[in-house]
Amino acid sequence: MALPSVAALARAPGVRLTVLAPPYVHPVYEGLDGVTLSPVDPRARRALQAWEVGRAIAGSQDVGIVCPASFSSALVLRLAGVPRRVGRATDGRSALLTDVLPRRQAPPFPLRVPAHYDPRYHRSRDYAELVEHVLGCPVPELYPLHVPHAAERAAARLLEEAGGRGPFVALNPGANGPARRWPAQRFVALGSALREAVDARVVVLGGAREGDLPARVAAGVTGAASLAGRTTVKSLMAVLRRVDLMVTNDTGPMHLAAALGTPLLDLCGAADERVTAPRGARSRVLRELLFCSPCVRNECPFDLECMHALTVAGVLGASLETLRLGRGGVNGA
C-alpha cells in the first residue's frame, strides 16, 4: 500500500530515496528507478534494537517519513539523527517527530452497510498524505511493479502444471490468523466447481507459514497444482499477472494482485475494508456484515460466523461473473 508513495518520492527531482523496510518486502521496490533499499532490517521491538538500527543508518538522510504508526519506527529515525522526521501523532511519539500530522479519523463502528475504499480511512492515502506534506504536490495512485523476464518464464512453467483448458484461477487459502481464513474445504469445493463450470486451470498459492494447507486444497481439486513454497516474490507477481482470477483471503499477495490489475475476490473476515481493501477497479470485496463487523482479530470468539456466512455458491457466482467481465470489467473497489 506504500508503493504509490514510494514511487512518487523516487520520481521527485533532487530526491535520493532510501527505503527502510523488512527484507521480505524488498522485491516490491526492486527495479524502481531512484530507489535504494537499505540492508538494515528496521523492525525493533526493544529500545536496544532501535538504537542498533538507528546507529546503522545514521548520517545518510535529511528527511525521514515514518509510515508505520508505531513508537519504535519514529524512535529509530530519532536515534539515527535524521534532521526532519515526518509522521502521525500516534502511539505517544509526537516528541520524536519534527513534523507532526494529526492522527487520522477512525472509521465508525459497527459497519452496517457494505463498504469499500474510503480515502478518509484507507492506509494507502494515509501514507500518501505524509509524502504530499513533504513534496507539496499530490501523489498519483500508480503501482510500477517490476517483473523481470526470468520471473515471467518461471511463472509460465509453473502454470503449465495446472490441468484444464479454461481460465487460470489462483486460490489463496492462507492468512495470518484463523479469523482471516475461509475454510479450506470451501476452497476445495470452489475449485472443483470452477473446474466443472469452465474447465478452470486451478493453482493454489501459499508460503512456508501455511504448512500443508495449500497442498491439501490442491489435492482436493482435480488437476490443481500447488505452487506453495515454489515462488519468489517476483515469480509470484508474474503468476498473478497471468491468472484470470484470484480468490483470496486478506493477505499480502492479495495486494500484489490488486496492484498488478488482476481480477480478484477478497473474502473479507477479520479486516476493515475501509482501511485495507485491495485497490483497483478489478478488485471486489465479499463480506457478510454481522454485529461485530468489522474486527481485526486473528482469533475469532464467535465461531468465525463472518467467514462461514460466505457460501461456496455465493463465491462461485461472484467468480463466474468476474471471469465473464474479464480484465476489462469493473467490479468496484
Verbal overview:
The chain is α/β, with parallel strands linked by helices and 333 residues long. The chain folds into 2 domains: 3-135, Rossmann fold; 149-328, 3-Layer(aba) Sandwich (Rossmann fold). Helices cover 36% and strands 12% of the residues. The chain is built from 13 helices and 11 strands. It has helices spanning 3-11, 26-29, 47-57, 71-79, 123-135, 149-159, 184-198, 213-220, 233-242, 252-260, 273-276, 305-308, 312-325; strands spanning 17-19, 35-37, 63-65, 84-88, 99-101, 168-172, 201-204, 225-226, 245-248, 264-267, 283-286. The strands form 3 sheets. It has a 6-stranded parallel sheet with strand order 8-7-6-9-10-11, sandwiched between helices. A 3-stranded parallel sheet has the order 3-4-5, with helices on both faces. Helix 2 links the parallel strand 1 and strand 2 (35-37). Helix 1 (3-11) packs parallel to helix 5 (123-135) and helix 7 runs parallel beside helix 8 (213-220). The chain is globular, with a radius of gyration of 21 Å. The two termini are 14 Å apart.
What is the structure about, briefly put?
This protein has 333 residues and is of the alpha/beta class. It has 13 helices and eleven strands. 36% of the residues lie in helices and 12% in strands.
Biggest sheet record? 6 strands, parallel
Question: What would the CATH topology of the largest domain be?
Answer: Rossmann fold
Order of helices and strands: HEHEHEHEEHHEHEHEHEHEHEHH
Q: How many angstroms does the end-to-end distance come to?
A: 14 Å
CATH superfamily of the largest domain: Glycogen Phosphorylase B
In CATH, what is the class of the largest domain?
A: Alpha Beta
Mean pLDDT: 92
Q: What are the segments in which pLDDT stays under 50 over at least 5 consecutive residues?
A: none
